[in-house]
């Protein structure tokens, strides 16, 4: 097992380091053995080319680190190799500002819609290079339109409406461009069973009844692109309907030939539109097997006398094959199909970039409007695409579209709702992750879909450092000239390994390695902290670049020293070979013991209040009843005033509980007597802590004093006279009591008299009221009768 580990460490350390090496920073764990390898790791990695940079036990790969770490490790800035990428614009013609009604008539190749046209990018691994690409839709840009029509029998009425399409479409397109050309082609189906009837009569006239139809064909180029609308009308008028047996048509064969036969169709490097008109579905790759055709479509032009001659030989093209050829030839497709087949062709549209679908009326009467609308839809959107990228190269897009609208990701490739004359821009970033395996130059192209213009980008890769050009082959600084001394280190020849290329991969001797890599003939190789390479210990690298193994046998490190407060060496020293080297004024195994005494000073200026010693910046109280940062707290002690009351009383007034033991117990302070309270020291007059006390003796007399410690001397200032309360005056007290009793008696008499008066008045009022209510009865005698009788004459009327 030991031999196996040793061989692995020796033979593969150049490429990937020891299997036991812990993960480190991205630069360190790459285990780069040369400056060229180092700069391929990441853009943040640099290589120290200082010949004397490495310490004992460090491998060549330690020269590769992030820039800040190299500086902290005392590599001079001038010795750090850190090449950067660049952008150079080789061709930068401005976009064309052209008016349709202008007098300047430019050729298509003189019109520029994309800027710049050519760049050279120098790429370093991990460092993206970003440039801006502008696109502007030129006004009056030339258009080539090829009308490809299904001439199966179901399209008979459509053919009648297309016969005048040339001149009518020319007239409408004049509103868009003054340089417009139109062409015409037709298709039916492969001329084999079961797509058509191969009987002699049906080959001459495939239609039934009295219909006069032309012989079936796969694809025919009727009219090459021309600016003569009358010629279009004349040739289309001569076309006849044909027929086939099945419903799907062979339109894909026709589209392929239109796309790849540039010369026969007459395509220019302008906007290319292909209008595909049908009322049926389509055959695609694999359907040819029904007719015994198994060879895949080769994607080449096979037109002879404007007729596709290989329909019976090659299968229909696949959708992906069509997409590739249409894109390669910058052709934008417009599918003009009937309502019935809209869903099918909309799905097809989603697979073909820069294509549109329009609803064709049953007799194609709306074909012109359909073409105009589809063209406006296609031309209002620009989508960038690029060819295949070299391995390890990536590209990202960010669009800045109309009104400042930004897009990223897939939306970063395109801008919509662009009108003629609008200018949009794209931020394009290209990044390489490694150098190409073969050569150092690659070319990629970016272009808008459906346009012939493109941006050519030449990619150069930084695969080595500048200092490598000054290397010394077979240098004497490398063991017996077995390497090239470059960038401060030996780059070993094939078959050699080691820091100085001192070992051969074929001559590794285990016993020699063991002997040179064991400390004091111990059992641990490189103290289990490194790998033995060519008899020399190469120490492991840590994930933290600041943590380093060192020493001839990797026996030292700078991170395994004692810690305090979770800090290495308490944060007050440095770790060297597992021992703390403390800063000034600190000591201890973890540099956690401070020699400063300022943290032990109490408010009174004494160290630990005179009750302890200062050790490692902290007070250690000698009396266990005291505690606190400066031994100022005593939870079980009485207050200062109560503590010294008896001694002050016995020494100042020869009284109190310690009167008999005063000299023995109370001689620990210096007593000073003053006349009055105002003569006592005040807190604002002192530079040391002072306590004011007020205590009472057994006779209820108060005495005032202060207690302080000054220069280790305890001082007590006391007012020499007791403050005793005066005795009471008896006469005023007795007189006051008698007077009070008399006054209270008088007050009670007055209150009684007042209540009696109120009661009498109420009784008299009640009597008067009853007197007023007494009255004699005035009724008549019931037995009395009057002597007078009055009689009234009933007939008397008062006359």
From TrEMBL:
Domain annotation Integrin beta subunit VWA: ranges: 34-465
GO CC, alphabetical: cell surface; focal adhesion; integrin complex; lamellipodium; melanosome; ruffle membrane; synapse
Main location: membrane
TM ranges: 730-752
Cystine pairs: 35-45, 38-75, 48-64, 207-213, 261-301, 435-693, 463-467, 478-490, 487-526, 492-501, 503-517, 532-537, 534-569, 539-554, 556-561, 575-580, 577-608, 582-591, 593-600, 614-619, 616-662, 621-631, 634-637, 641-650, 647-724, 666-701
Membrane topology: Single-pass type I membrane protein
Signal peptide per UniProt: 1-20
Pfam families xrefs: EGF_2, EGF_integrin, I-EGF_1, Integrin_b_cyt, Integrin_B_tail, Integrin_beta, PSI_integrin
Superkingdom of this protein's organism: Eukaryota
SUPFAM superfamilies the UniProt entry points to: EGF/Laminin, Integrin beta tail domain, Integrin domains, Plexin repeat, vWA-like
Location of the region described as Disordered in the Swiss-Prot/TrEMBL record: 87-107
GO biological process, one term: cell-cell adhesion
Annotated PROSITE patterns: I_EGF_1, I_EGF_2
Compositionally biased tracts (Basic and acidic residues): 98-107
Record domain Integrin beta subunit tail: where: 641-729
Localization in the cell: Cell membrane; Cell projection, Invadopodium membrane; Cell projection, Lamellipodium; Cell projection, Ruffle membrane
Annotated GO MF terms: C-X3-C chemokine binding; collagen binding involved in cell-matrix adhesion; fibronectin binding; integrin binding; laminin binding; metal ion binding; protein kinase binding
Domain Integrin beta subunit cytoplasmic span(s) in chain numbering: 753-799
Keyword field: Calcium, Cell adhesion, Cell junction, Cell membrane, Cell projection, Disulfide bond, EGF-like domain, Glycoprotein, Integrin, Magnesium, Membrane, Metal-binding, Myogenesis, Phosphoprotein, Receptor, Repeat, Signal, Transmembrane, Transmembrane helix
Protein family according to the UniProt entry: Belongs to the integrin beta chain family.
UniProt xrefs under PANTHER family: INTEGRIN BETA, INTEGRIN BETA SUBUNIT
Protein name: Integrin beta
């Amino acid at each position: 097992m030991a031999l196996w580990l040793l061989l692995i460490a020796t033979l593969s350390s150049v490429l990937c380091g020891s299997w036991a090496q812990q993960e480190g920073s991205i630069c360190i764990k790459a285990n780069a053995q040369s400056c060229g390898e180092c700069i391929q790791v990441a853009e943040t990695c640099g290589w120290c080319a200082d010949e004397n940079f490495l310490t004992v036990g460090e491998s060549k790969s330690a020269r590769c680190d992030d820039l800040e770490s190299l500086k902290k490790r005392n590599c001079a800035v001038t010795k750090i190799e850190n090449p950067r990428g660049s952008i150079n614009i080789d061709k930068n013609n401005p976009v064309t500002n052209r008016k349709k009604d202008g007098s300047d008539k430019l050729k298509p190749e003189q019109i520029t819609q994309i800027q710049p046209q050519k760049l050279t990018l120098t790429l370093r691994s991990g460092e993206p290079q970003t440039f801006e690409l502008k696109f502007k839709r030129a006004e009056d840009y030339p258009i080539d339109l090829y009308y490809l029509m299904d001439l199966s029998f179901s399209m008979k009425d459509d053919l009648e409406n297309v016969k005048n399409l040339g001149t009518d479409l020319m007239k409408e397109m004049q509103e868009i461009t003054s340089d417009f050309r139109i062409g015409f082609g037709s298709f039916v189906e492969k001329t084999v069973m079961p797509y058509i009837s191969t009987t002699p009569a049906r080959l001459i006239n495939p239609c039934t009844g009295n219909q006069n139809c032309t012989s079936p064909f796969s694809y025919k180029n009727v009219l090459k692109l021309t600016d003569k609308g009358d010629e279009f009308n004349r040739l289309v008028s001569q076309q006849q309907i044909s027929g086939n047996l099945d419903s799907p048509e062979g339109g894909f064969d026709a589209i392929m030939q239109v796309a790849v036969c540039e010369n026969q169709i007459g395509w220019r490097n302008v906007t290319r539109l292909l209008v595909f008109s049908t009322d049926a579905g389509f055959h695609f790759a694999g359907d040819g097997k029904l007719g015994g055709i198994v060879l895949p479509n080769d994607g080449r032009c096979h037109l002879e006398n404007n007729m596709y001659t290989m329909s019976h030989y090659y299968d229909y093209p696949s959708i992906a094959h069509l997409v590739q050829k249409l894109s390669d030839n910058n052709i934008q497709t417009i599918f003009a199909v009937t309502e019935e087949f809209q869903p099918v062709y909309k799905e097809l549209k989603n697979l073909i970039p820069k294509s549109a679908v329009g609803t064709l009326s049953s007799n194609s009467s709306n074909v012109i409007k359909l073409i105009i609308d589809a063209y406006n839809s296609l031309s209002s959107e620009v989508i960038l695409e690029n060819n295949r990228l070299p391995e390890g190269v990536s590209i990202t897009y960010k669009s800045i579209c109309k009104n400042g609208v930004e897009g990223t990701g897939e939306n970063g490739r395109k801008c919509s709702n662009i009108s003629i004359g609008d200018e949009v821009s794209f931020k394009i970033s290209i990044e390489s992750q490694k150098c190409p395996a073969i050569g150092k130059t690659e070319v990629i192209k970016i272009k808008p879909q459906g346009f012939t213009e493109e941006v050519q980008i030449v990619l150069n890769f930084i695969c080595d450092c500048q200092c490598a050009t000054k290397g010394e082959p077979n240098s004497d600084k490398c063991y017996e000239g077995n390497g090239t001394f470059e960038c401060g280190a030996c780059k070993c020849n094939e078959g050699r390994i080691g820091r100085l290329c001192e070992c051969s991969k074929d001559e590794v001797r285990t016993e020699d390695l063991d002997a040179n890599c064991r400390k004091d003939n111990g059992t641990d190789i490189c103290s289990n902290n490194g790998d033995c390479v060519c008899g020399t210990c190469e120490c492991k690298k840590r994930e933290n670049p600041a943590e380093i193994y060192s020493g001839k046998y990797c026996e030292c490190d700078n991170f395994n020293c004692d810690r305090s407060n979770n800090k290495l060496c308490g944060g007050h020293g440095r770790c060297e070979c597992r021992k703390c080297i403390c800063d000034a004024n600190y000591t201890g195994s973890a540099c956690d013991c401070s020699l400063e005494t300022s943290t032990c000073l109490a408010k009174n200026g004494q160290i630990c209040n005179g009750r302890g010693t200062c050790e490692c910046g902290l007070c250690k109280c000698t009396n266990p009843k005291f505690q606190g940062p400066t031994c100022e707290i005593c939870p079980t002690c009485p207050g200062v005033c109560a503590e010294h009351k008896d001694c002050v009383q016995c020494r100042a007034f020869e009284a109190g509980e310690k009167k008999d033991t005063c000299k023995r117990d109370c001689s620990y302070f210096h007593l000073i007597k003053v006349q009055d309270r105002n003569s006592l020291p005040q807190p604002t007059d002192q530079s040391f802590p002072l306590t004011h006390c007020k205590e009472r003796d057994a006779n209820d007399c108060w005495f005032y004093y202060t207690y302080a410690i000054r220069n280790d001397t305890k001082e007590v200032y006391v007012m020499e006279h007791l403050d005793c309360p005066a005795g009471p005056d008896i006469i005023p007290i007795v007189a006051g009591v008698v007077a009070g009793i008399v006054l209270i008696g008088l007050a009670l008499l007055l209150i009684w008299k007042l209540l009696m008066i109120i009661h009498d008045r109420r009784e008299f009022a009640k009597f008067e009221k009853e007197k007023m209510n007494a009255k004699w009865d005035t009724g008549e005698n019931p037995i009395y009768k009057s002597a007078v009788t009055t009689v009234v004459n009933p007939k008397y009327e008062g006359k």
